[in-house]
Amino acid sequence: MANGKNQKYYDKPIRILIAKPGIDGHDRGVYVLARAFRDAGMEVIYPGLLPTPESIIETAIDEDVDVIAISLLNGAHMAVFTKVMNLLKEKKANGIAVVGGGIIPDEDKSKLEKMGVTGNYGPGTSLNIIIEHIKKRAYGAREEKWGKSKKTK
Amino acid sequence: MEKVNFWQKKIDELSKDLNHKNNKYEHWEKTVLKDWISESKLKTRSGRLTYSVEDTAGTEDEMPGVYPFTRGIYPDMYNGKTWSMRMFSGFGTPEDTNTRLKYLLQHGETGLSIAFDEPTLYGIDCDDKRAEGEVGRCGVNVTTLKDMEVIFDGIPLDKVSTSMTINAPSIIIFAMFIAVAKKKGIPLNLLTGTLQADMLKEYIAQKEWVYPPEAHLRMIRDMMLFCTEKIPKWNYISVSGYHIREAGATAAQELAFTLADGFYYVDMGIKAGLKIGEFVPRISFFFDSSINFFEEIAKFRAARRIWAMVMKEKYGANDLRSLKLRFHTQTSGYTLTWQQPLNNIVRTTTEALSAALGGTQSLHTNSYDEALALPTEEAAKVALRTQQIIAEETGITDVVDPLGGSYYIEDLTKRMELEAYKYFEKIDHMGGILQAVKEGYPQKEIANSSYERQGKLETGEEIMVGVNKYREENEKPINILHINRKPELVQKKRLEEVKKSRDENKLKTCLDKLRGAMSSDNVNLVPHVINAVECYATISDIINVGREVYGEWKEPKIL
Questions:
Q1: A1: in domain
Q2: Exposed e or buried b for every residue in A107-120, given b needs 16+ CB within 10 A?
Q3: Is this prediction's ipTM beyond 0.90?
Q4: Chain B touched by A93 (CB under 8 Å)
Q5: Can you give the pTM of this predicted structure?
């Protein structure tokens, strides 16, 4: 998959933060995804239950991740993603892609896409589809980050 | 050391039985099956295509209502009385729930089952920032005693049994319930009902905790002691496999971890100085009923047999009530799909059938729209009707344990039993279930099973109709329930008023006394918590006192 001038984007394993915000302990899906991402060669960071948007962004920056993957089953997705995206802007954290998943009605998916939250896969989605999407976003994020830092040099 | 031998003895007996040469099958395999199909084409989990009378060995003398109760805990089972159709509900404001409870009572329900919202389940007040958007959403919100007074207004607590699904803050909700009864002038010994209160399964699966396990377990012990003395008809714990299963466990793992938890609570009561006959009969169970039809039935049968045998042979229990495993069942939420949601009615039906054929005492059937949202009234009605059709139209209640003696069911029951004993042995070896849980052992086992199952769905080895087979693009959406923010406003306003009118000095004294009681292991916390809720302490006022004393729990690494 990797070739030519873009080689550097593919060299290091993708670092991904998985988070499940809200007061909800049903973490079956989170563990399945974490294992699947790890088996796909990614470095997975799972900070445990009950994270807030603030703690998610803080961890993402500290851990220097390429992607934040957030799962929500409780209907709070619009509020949470709006907050996460605003915080990312506030902290000027460029080069971190945000993907979503869980129970998200169709009418909200397009709104999320506009905010930059992609994927938004529901239960029953094949893991391969999710993994491919994350790779695409992660390499895109690196291009943005590294491309820019090159210019400033 | 002796304990390990007990499990090992069971493992040896069952292994010997299950590996016994099956002459009838082998003869049939050689003379009939081999000519018909090549062995490589056989596709069954146990590697056997069918079973024979030889697989029922050792079960010939079992009868319903007779030790070890594999065939049911009552001689007449549903012929006498069908299972209770206990539909779990609770929503919105305490007023909404009160109206709903009164409606149910007017329509002949005698058992109430109350669901609490997420903030209540975690001991978070309704005005906390973290509770935003969650108040009254998945159940009713309770922040202070005032809310419980509203919920039970006009409800005769001595005439109905009240089941409350609450765990980490169960001692607080229970104290509020007692305070309401006291205000109504109802003698405590007339109260009947159930608290879920099973914290071990929280660490294993549902993950709703505040403190390290020992602190929560001590509170269960205190409720156990308090109830045994003062509220003898109260089921102070419902040992739950449901959440373990939904977190991804196999049927055998659900069985094993749940019963291991149950044995822990028995040990706890004994250690606290209680006699088996006076507290064990009040321990009840709560299982999942999932989609593999026969496996579930075998699981329920094995649960009863194991409980009876272990209580008798290992604990020396001799009163029949301590030997009988009573359980509630809920159909599986995990097996429901958001794709083609009407298919879920069929899934729930077969799962409910498994529960009925497995001899459950009560049953909750899920609604077809629950993979999408909380159920609409219409969907909840279909779920209840599903039970009524099974109970009143199909004729399966005429005969007790109609599958008893089925070659396959009897073999599968023994296999379930063996799997469970292997886990008991392993857990004992690790130093008991509490230690195993603290090390994350059941959690890892469950995560492995869950991942394995996902892999099978990916490859199509296991099928979910509408998900990885017979998919449809552009499905038409169904109507789902939308919940508004009204409960949050109502609750916040009520809390504000409560805080204005409560006596802060009195409250502080109560909380200080509670802190003192928590710091010493040989004081019963229940009366102290009752005092605190009577001063209108909020749920998090009390939770936070414990936080100062016990600290918070950090989950062991599972990955």
A1: no
A2: ebbeebeeeebbbb
A3: no
A4: no
A5: 0.94
